[in-house]
Each structure stands twice: as structure tokens, then as C-alpha cells.
Write a sequence for this structure.
């Protein structure tokens, strides 16, 4: 028998890790609810044609496809062989696969809205916390199975939604104690760049290339643009755009000069100005100074290489640590149109929980009490004694105290070691004498102290 192992890019999570992850989930969920978002869950798999073509050519290659049922049936072998030949030629075949694991939560959400728009009340605000899968090369902060936490609002074109989503980012990371830079750009500005570079058909080529700027550097981006058949003069113009620097207001002024007379670009600039101005009213500073650990910064290199974005785009980076983005999103004003239901504007953000976990772990930001599971361990000191302990334990559980009874009679040392390994602070012992007197000995294993309590005193103890 081969040694058991995990698929590459996936992980098991023990109790300590799960508690830390749940701390992150709870923090995010609480803020989502505070802003009026309601929960939604969708299936792990979607129809393949629901996903394909929605993430750009790079994303399509990372979709995990699921083989059709019954391919081992002798009647399907010839069909399967023909289907594999199509795959080897770079084509998809429904004879081989019709379903895939979801790549993100946004497209499944758009599909849900398209299917249920007649029953929904708009604007519809939902949050979703579920795993997604990508056939990516595993590395630090990048996994093949990971969780996303999304918040989206559809049915409203108001830019106040973008302001609130920026505030959600700021609030969550402030609660987690994590200093971040919330980077923003606007796809209308990128569309305008494509227009002045020769036409809207250049948009995907430009955004896919510059979205890699942080990873491969400017020279490699220029090489990729050339491979995508942009001319030297167009590449010079893109390089000029990417080199615009200064404060947020300084960047906006330079953009106005670059896109003078281009309505698309000026509209994108106007939307960024609205977000930055309104965010200052909301307490999220937008001029470079960090407020509550978060800053809002225009990043003209930000492209978010997904085809469905149409307006404001977000990306969040943690300060003081080398890590990829820990959040991102943007406006997509016709995403449901991909499913035959046009005219429903939307905007959303996502939290990358796995990367947030890695950052918080490295910076030691988790609170000490996040590890606490069982609060009280009742020692097993005999049959009659354990019956009394069990009854007390159940009453404490009814009061919300997390308790457990050691399952069999064992030496004191073994039971103490069990409590130590599980970080249980309190141990309660009921021996023969204590049972007769209806008392117990309670040891505080952290403070190295002990007291004798009556059963009633134990049940009414103020804090454990």
C-alpha cells in the first residue's frame, strides 16, 4: 500500500489552524452582516460553459474540469478517445467533460442572479464564504484549493456601493489588526488607454500584460505587448501611462492631461474622484496617510485581468510583508448579461482568507485566546465519581461552558498531560471524599493554584 498523501496545492487543517481560520471568517462575516449583506451558497461545481470565457485566456487554463460520469463504460470508450484527441488539440469536448469546479464566487453568483432575478429584491446584497479551485502552480500564498469571502451588490449603479466596499475592507483589516494598502483603479481608464492605442480590441491584450507587472517587471511586460502585436509607439504610450506617479490627486491631474478629450477616460477619472472624496467622509483616508491601518491609493498599474470588470477595481496588499494580494474586486455592470439577463449592474469584493491567514501567522496577529477550546476538564476518578462529574458537566455546558470528561479512569499524570496538550486551563477533580461532601477540587493549570468548591459554587462560578 502506498504512503497516504494529499493532492498538491491542498492542505489538512488541525484544530489550532481551524480556530484561527474561524476567527478570520467570523470577523469578515460580522462586518458583512453589519453592512446589510445576506448569506448565499452555491454548488462546488458548475456547468463548464457557465465558467469558460469569463476569466480571460489565462483564467480559462486554470479551471479544473470534471470528467463525465461513465467514461469507463465500454460503450463510451470510443467517444472518450475522440474527446481526448480534441483536448490534445486545445479544444473542449462535451463528450469528455461538461462540468467544472468553480474558479471563483463571482460568476456563480451572477448565474444565481440570472436564474432568480424575478424573485430577488434589488439592490440585492449577498456575501458568500466557500472554497474555490484553480489549477495553478502551488507556491507560498497560492493554493489549488482555497477559500474566498465575497460581498457583492447588484441592481444598483450608485458609486456609494464602491465607497462602502472600500469601508468594509478597511473595517475588516482594522479588526484583524492588519495594516493594508487598498489599491484602486478604473477599467474605464484602461479602456481609454486601449482606445488611444488604436482601438477597444486592444483592451484584453493590454490588461492581461500589465496585470503581470509586479511579477515580471516592465521590460517583460513590454516584450509581451510586442508579442501581442502592439506597435512600438503604442508600447511607448503604455509605458508613459504606467510611469505616472505622485499623490492620488497628482495622478488624477496627469491622467486628465493624458486623456484630454477622451470621454471614457474622463468618466473613469470622475468615478475615482468620487470614491476618494467620499471615502474621506467615511473615515478612510485617501491621501497617503494611513488611518486605522488602511490607506486608499490609486495604482495605475492595477488591471485585474478579468474581462467582466467595467469600472472601479480594487486590490488589497498587506504592508510590511512580502505577499501577493489578499483581496480584490470591482464593478461589473453587465455580468448577468452573460447569462441572458442584461441591465443588472453590480460591484463586489473578495477576501483571500488563506493569504490573510499566512500574513497574520507570520506577523503573529492572532489573539492569544483564539486557541482556547475546552475550558474545563473533569478528571475520571471512578464510576460513581464520574457520574457526578458528568451531571455537573452537562449543567455547565447548558450555561455555555466548554467541558469534557476524561473518558476512562487513568493515572493523574496522564489526565494532566491530556489537559496540557489541549491547552485546557481548569481541571476539576471529584474523588470519593469530595463526592460524599458534594464538593470538588478545581485547579487553575495556568496560575498553578487550586480551590475547593461546593457543587453549587462550581455551577455558579462567574468565569472560567
Amino acid at each position: 500500500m502506498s504512503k497516504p498523501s494529499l493532492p498538491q496545492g491542498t492542505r489538512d487543517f488541525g484544530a489550532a489552524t481551524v480556530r484561527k481560520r474561524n476567527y478570520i471568517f467570523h470577523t469578515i462575516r460580522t462586518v458583512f452582516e453589519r453592512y446589510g449583506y445576506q448569506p448565499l451558497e452555491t454548488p462546488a461545481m458548475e456547468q463548464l460553459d457557465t465558467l469558460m470565457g469569463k476569466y480571460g485566456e489565462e483564467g480559462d487554463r486554470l479551471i479544473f474540469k470534471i470528467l463525465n460520469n461513465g467514461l469507463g463504460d465500454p460503450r463510451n470508450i470510443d467517444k472518450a478517445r475522440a474527446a481526448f484527441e480534441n483536448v490534445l488539440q486545445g479544444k473542449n469536448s462535451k463528450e469528455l467533460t461538461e462540468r467544472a469546479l468553480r474558479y471563483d464566487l463571482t460568476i456563480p453568483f451572477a448565474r444565481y442572479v440570472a436564474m432568480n432575478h424575478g424573485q430577488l429584491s434589488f439592490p440585492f446584497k449577498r456575501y458568500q464564504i466557500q472554497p474555490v479551485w484553480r489549477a495553478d502552480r502551488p507556491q507560498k500564498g497560492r493554493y489549488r484549493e482555497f477559500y474566498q469571502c465575497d460581498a457583492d451588490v447588484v441592481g444598483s449603479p450608485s458609486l456609494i456601493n464602491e465607497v462602502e466596499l472600500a469601508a468594509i475592507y478597511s473595517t475588516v483589516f482594522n479588526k484583524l489588526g492588519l495594516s493594508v494598502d487598498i489599491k484602486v483603479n478604473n477599467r474605464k481608464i484602461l479602456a481609454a488607454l486601449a482606445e488611444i492605442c488604436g482601438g477597444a480590441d486592444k483592451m484584453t491584450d493590454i490588461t492581461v500584460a500589465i496585470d503581470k507587472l509586479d511579477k515580471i517587471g516592465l521590460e517583460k511586460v513590454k516584450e509581451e505587448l510586442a508579442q501581442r502585436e502592439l506597435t512600438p509607439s503604442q508600447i511607448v504610450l503604455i509605458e508613459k501611462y504606467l510611469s505616472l506617479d505622485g499623490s492620488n490627486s497628482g495622478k488624477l491631474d496627469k491622467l486628465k492631461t493624458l486623456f484630454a478629450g477622451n470621454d471614457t477616460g474622463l468618466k473613469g477619472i470622475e468615478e475615482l474622484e468620487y470614491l476618494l472624496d467620499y471615502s474621506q467622509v467615511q473615515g478612510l483616508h485617501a491621501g497617503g496617510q494611513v488611518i486605522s491601518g488602511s490607506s486608499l491609493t490609486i495604482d495605475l498599474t492595477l488591471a485585474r485581468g478579468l474581462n467582466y470588470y467595467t469600472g472601479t477595481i480594487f486590490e488589497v496588499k498587506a504592508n510590511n510583508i512580502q505577499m501577493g494580494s489578499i483581496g480584490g474586486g470591482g464593478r461589473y455592470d453587465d455580468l448577468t448579461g452573460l447569462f441572458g439577463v442584461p441591465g443588472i449592474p453590480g460591484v463586489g469584493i473578495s477576501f483571500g482568507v488563506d493569504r490573510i491567514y499566512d500574513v497574520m501567522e507570520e506577523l503573529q496577529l492572532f489573539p492569544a485566546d483564539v486557541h482556547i477550546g475546552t475550558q474545563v476538564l473533569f478528571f475520571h476518578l471512578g464510576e460513581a465519581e464520574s457520574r457526578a462529574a458528568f451531571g455537573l458537566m452537562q449543567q455547565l455546558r447548558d450555561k455555555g461552558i466548554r467541558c469534557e470528561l476524561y473518558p476512562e479512569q487513568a493515572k493523574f499524570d496522564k489526565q494532566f498531560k491530556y489537559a496540557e496538550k489541549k491547552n485546557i486551563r481548569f481541571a476539576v477533580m471529584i474523588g470519593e471524599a469530595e463526592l460524599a461532601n458534594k464538593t470538588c477540587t478545581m485547579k487553575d493549570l495556568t496560575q498553578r493554584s487550586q480551590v475547593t468548591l461546593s457543587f453549587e459554587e462550581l455551577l455558579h462560578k462567574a468565569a472560567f
Residues 285-292 have pLDDT under 50 and may be disordered. Residues 132 and 374 are 31 Å apart (CA to CA).
